[in-house]
Design brief:
The structure holds 2 protein chains of 2 kinds. By secondary structure, chain A is mainly beta. Chain A has 4 helices and 17 strands. In chain B, strands 4-3-7-9-12-14-17-20-22-24 form a 10-stranded mixed β-sheet, covered by helices on one side. In chain B, β3 (132-138) and β4 (141-145) form a beta hairpin. The model of chain B is unreliable at 1-15 and 122-129 (pLDDT under 50). The chains are: A mainly beta, B alpha/beta.
Chain lengths: 343, 489
């Protein structure tokens, strides 16, 4: 089972399937009988505006899998990168990108996943954070309803480093955002947040695994989402605390609202603990909008539609409250408000 | 505090595993190995009708084509299924007609285990003390079932599975395998082929079973496994509470215990099933020996407003692989799972529950407390599934893990699948060690470290202990202390 290899070798039998425990709710092999032809080249000039246009920063474009291979932020630097992954057409492509952030440097990574057509795409990013470095990754996904897209991020933290992310997605035919963090502890911190808003027959999968390998590390995770119609959301979060990683403090929460009888939310919050001096907790809830709250709001004169949007906005808004970058925070709020209004 | 003091005294006066003795008794065995002949041998020994043999043989064929599951977080060398005996029974002298004819060695065994087999002994307490009917299963056969007559007067059938196959075939045929299908999983399928004894309970409509029913499982013979099969049916509006206990001798070899328990609750019926599992856990230092406890337990809440509650205290076994489940088919049916799983030494446990919500308004509660000590591995694995028709279904899950010591591990793997727009699902889990502050406080009040740990552990598992019938709760509390013995410092 290896998606990159499946695309490269055009061998659909290598696609992850429901028999792979970590992919049981995001079955690609059952979905795709064959791997599509390789994608045609896409002119980066032709892709139009992106969601982070106007935010000061360097723009990198990955167009149908073609883009830069490595980016380096020198020690002590402070940069904002806008990374646009744009796919068009019905082909398949994969691409890898390496980002190194030097000791003590700061990086704000503004990521957008756009288009996708009816093709298959894989974006693999490796992110190395040097000692005391910090990176905040903010990603919005606006994919076409027929796209099959997987984005994987491998983060390697050094002692004292800090990684924070907020992923926002409306899903696609099948979409997975996977984040794997190798966490050395020793003052390093990770925040892995996400929000999904799914309707129609869309699917989104937020999967993460954090491996605490040394003492005194922190991980904090908040994922929230709303599913309607026949949409399906998947949340898988694994926190591993290895032997010797004492003093680890790890918290995970996943809350979902399910608005339709044909929608589905699947969740697996997992703890794997091999050290005893730890504080680890996870919480997961799935439920409907509170009828009493709706009633209260309507009684105060709000139309039902507006009341629902307000409730949804406040529910997902708590994820956005944790975004640190002031420049991007407003963009994410606008992005979400626009989608809530349309929902 | 009295309980704690009592516990401490108990611990001081006990061996590490008090049930590790072997009963020297003449026994009869099936030839070693497993094939169609073994299955036929067991069926013949039990004087079963043809349909039962056919059922077993079909299961055997299916099992032969299956593979041992490997998804649980446990590791053990492959089991050689040909290197075991699938039937072991104390040699019967034409079957005891009364307790007086039961082999005295057997009676002594149960006396030593503290299991009341003589009805008068049970009665010899204070008037009004709760009474228990016992079905005692020794290796592959049920040696005695008490209080049968009194239960029969209330209309309750309580007997061994073998007897039920002969005496109540219409009930057995109707319900056997209807909750856990023959091919449900590898171990359940093996059990279906070679199951020996277990209990059969039928409570007729509207009857509240007049006393607690219990089964006591004892593995004695070497080189054998135990494959009991239990079937409990609570007809409309009936109520029954059933307790299960188990022990085995200390041996260097691993012995397989692959049981299947099926519960059927019809309309408005309620079944309460409690287990105190104390199989030999193996040598705590080397991990040698101990029971492999690979058990399939499932309840079918078939009727509207039916209710099933599983309560388990798991302290023994080298490896536990067990997920007592509820299929909540009836409207407003209720499933409950209360569990304490303790692992010490080199024990491995992968246990939890499944709650499948099919009926509207069905509710389930899961409270799981895992305690790991020594070099053990303790996993909670659970599934809560809310299907599209289960409007207003609710689940509450709480799994807490406690770690004692640096070399043990605790894992939580809950699966949640919600497919209904009007369901409510809440899950929370924590993993911590014993609080230094609380330990300090207890020690400052004059408790030794061991006592302080026991006090805190008892507090940690209290939610579950409260669900046990009283006598069992006291027993379980002691067991918790004994299981954790030597884990401090």
């Amino acid at each position: 089972m290896n998606l990159g290899q499946a695309i490269r070798l055009r061998d659909a039998t290598l696609l992850p399937s429901r028999r792979d425990e970590d992919w049981r709710w995001t079955d690609l092999r059952g979905l795709l009988r064959t791997i599509p032809e390789p994608s045609l080249a896409l002119d980066p000039e032709s892709i139009g505006p992106g969601p982070f246009d106007g935010v000061a920063g360097e723009v990198l474009v990955v167009a149908n899998g073609a883009g830069p291979e490595a980016v380096e932020v020198e020690a002590g630097g402070d940069r904002t990168l806008v990374l646009r992954q744009v796919s068009r057409g019905d082909g398949a492509h994969a691409c890898r990108l390496r980002i190194r952030v030097g000791a003590g440097a700061r990086l704000t990574l503004l990521e957008s996943h756009e288009g996708g057509g009816s093709g298959l795409s894989l974006l693999g990013v490796e992110l190395d954070l040097g000692e005391g470095a910090a990176c905040e990754r903010l990603a919005v996904c606006d994919l076409d309803p027929d796209a099959v897209a997987v984005a994987e991020l491998d983060v390697r933290l050094s002692p004292g480093a800090r990684f924070a992310q907020t992923l926002l997605t409306t899903g696609s035919r099948r979409q997975r955002l996977e984040t794997r963090v190798s966490h050395p502890g020793q003052g390093a911190e990770a925040r892995l947040d996400g929000a999904y808003l799914l309707s129609g027959r869309r699917h989104a999968d937020l999967t993460s695994s954090v491996r605490h390998e040394g003492p005194d590390g922190r991980t904090d995770q908040l994922a929230r989402g709303i599913v309607d119609d026949q949409a399906r959301a998947v949340f898988q979060g694994r926190i591993v605390v290895q032997e010797g990683a004492d003093g680890t403090d790890a918290r995970m929460a996943h809350n979902a609202l399910i608005l339709s009888d044909r929608a589905e939310v699947d969740a697996r919050p997992e703890l794997e603990i091999y050290a005893d001096d730890v504080a680890c907790a996870h919480g997961a809830t799935v439920g409907a909008l509170d009828d009493e709250v709706l009633f209260y709001m309507r009684q105060r004169g709000l139309p039902e539609r507006e009341a629902r949007i307000l409730l949804a906005a406040s529910f997902l808004g708590e994820v956005l409250d944790r975004v640190e970058s002031p420049a991007a925070s407003g963009r994410l709020r606008d992005w979400l408000a626009a989608r809530l209004g349309a929902a | 505090m009295a309980a704690v003091k009592d516990t401490v005294e108990q611990v001081a006066g006990l061996e590490k595993y008090e049930h590790g003795f072997v009963t020297e008794i003449e026994q009869e065995f099936a030839p070693k190995g497993l094939d169609r002949d073994t299955v036929a041998f067991i069926s013949r020994k039990k004087e079963e009708p043809d349909w039962m043999l056919a059922w077993r043989l079909e299961a055997f064929e299916r099992w032969s084509a299956m593979e041992s599951p490997d998804w649980a977080r446990v590791s053990f060398p492959p089991i050689d299924y040909q290197d075991a005996t699938y039937y072991a029974a104390p040699k019967a002298k034409d079957g005891p007609a009364s307790l007086d004819e039961v082999d005295p060695e057997l009676l002594k065994t149960y006396e030593k285990l503290g299991i009341p087999l003589r009805e008068q002994e049970v009665l010899a307490g204070v008037t009004g003390a709760p009474r228990y009917a016992v079905d005692a299963v020794f290796d592959s056969v049920s040696v005695v079932t008490t209080f049968k007559k009194e239960l029969a007067e209330a209309g309750v059938i309580f007997c061994s599975m073998s007897e039920a196959v002969r005496e109540h075939p219409e009930l057995v045929r109707k319900y056997l395998g209807s909750v856990v299908p023959v091919t449900d999983n590898f171990f359940a399928c093996l059990n279906s082929a070679v199951f020996s004894d277990g209990s059969f309970v039928y409570v007729p409509p509207g009857v509240r079973c007049p006393m607690e029913l219990s089964t006591y499982f004892r593995i004695n013979a070497a080189g054998s496994g135990q494959f009991e099969r239990t079937l409990i049916i609570a007809d409309k509006g009936a109520y029954v509470s059933y307790l299960e206990g188990c022990t085995a001798p200390m041996r260097d070899e691993n012995q397989l215990h692959a049981a299947v328990v099926e519960l059927v609750a019809l309309e408005d019926a309620e079944i309460k099933y409690s287990t105190v599992q104390n199989w030999y856990p193996g040598d705590p230092e080397t991990g040698k020996g101990g029971i492999y406890n690979f058990v399939t337990k499932r309840a079918d809440c078939r009727g509207d407003r039916s209710r099933v509650s599983w309560t388990q205290v798991e302290t023994g076994s080298a490896i536990t692989w067990k997920y007592p489940s509820c299929v909540l088919r009836g409207r407003e049916s209720v499933g409950e799972f209360y569990s304490i799983a303790i692992t010490n030494g080199r024990q491995q446990a992968d246990t939890g529950t499944k709650m499948i919500h099919l009926g509207a308004g069905s509710r389930s509660t899961i409270i799981s407390k895992g305690i790991s000590a020594g070099k053990s591995q303790n996993s909670y694995r659970g599934l809560v599934q809310i299907m599209p028709n289960a409007d207003h279904a609710r689940n509450f899950t709480q799994c807490d893990s406690l770690l004692i010591g640096k070399a043990c591990a605790a894992h939580t793997v809950p699966y949640i699948e919600a497919r209904n727009g009007a369901c409510t699902f809440e899950h929370e889990a924590t993993t911590t060690r014993l609080s230094e502050d609380q330990l300090f406080y207890a020690r400052q009040r004059g408790l030794s470290e061991e006592e302080a740990v026991q006090l805190l552990v008892n507090g940690f598992v209290r939610d579950v202990l409260q669900e046990l019938p009283m006598e069992f709760a006291v027993e379980a509390q002691k067991l918790v202390a004994i299981s954790l013995e030597g884990s401090v410092g």
